[in-house]
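Usage

Read records sequentially. Each one opens with the input sequence:
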Amino acid sequence: MGTPAVLIRKSTGEIIKHADYPRLDMQPVSGLDPDLEWLIKTTPYVQPDYDSRIYILNQIESVTTEPHQEWPWLNQYQITFQTVKRISEEIIQAIENAENEANSNVLPYTKQLKILSLGVATLFRRVEGMTLTAKETKIKNKCLAIGTNVWKNHDTATAKVAEVTAGSEPQIDAGWEKTEPA
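and closes with the structure output:
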C-alpha cells in the first residue's frame, strides 16, 4: 500500500485525482507536466472528540505549499477538522429523543399496554370505592413509581432545554431515570 496523495493542477488549483503517490520510494515523479503536482495527504491534528448531537464536524481539505516533514521536496494536502454548533432546534430534538429513550427504559414498549391497562383498571376500582387486592396495590405502586420517573425525566429535559436556550451545551446523556421500577 502506498502513501495517500493528491494530484493537482497548479495553475487552477483543480484536483485531478486522489490516489497513492506513484512512487514507493517517494522520490519526485520524472516526466510530470510542470503544471501538475503531487501533494502528500496529511492530517496534522487528530479528529476532535465531539457530541454529534450538539456539533457538526466539518472536514477541511486544503492545498498547501508547506513541505512535508518526512519528504520536504513534496508539499502537503492538509486535512483538518472544525466543529460547528448545531442550531438550538436540532439540539432540543436530541434532548427530546434522549428523554424518550430514557422513558422507554422506565416503561418498556412491550409492557406498556399491560401495565397501563392494569393501572387504569386499578384506578377505576379505587375511584369506585373498592378495596384493592394485593396485586392491584402492587400495580398502583408500580404505576406511581413509573410516573415519578417519567416526571423526573420531564424535569431533566426541561432543564436541558433551558440550558440550550441560555446558550450552554448540556450533557445530553446525564441525569436521566432509566430503570424500570420493580
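Summary fields computed downstream for this record:
- The chain has two domains: 4-85, 88-165.
- The chain has a mean pLDDT of 96.
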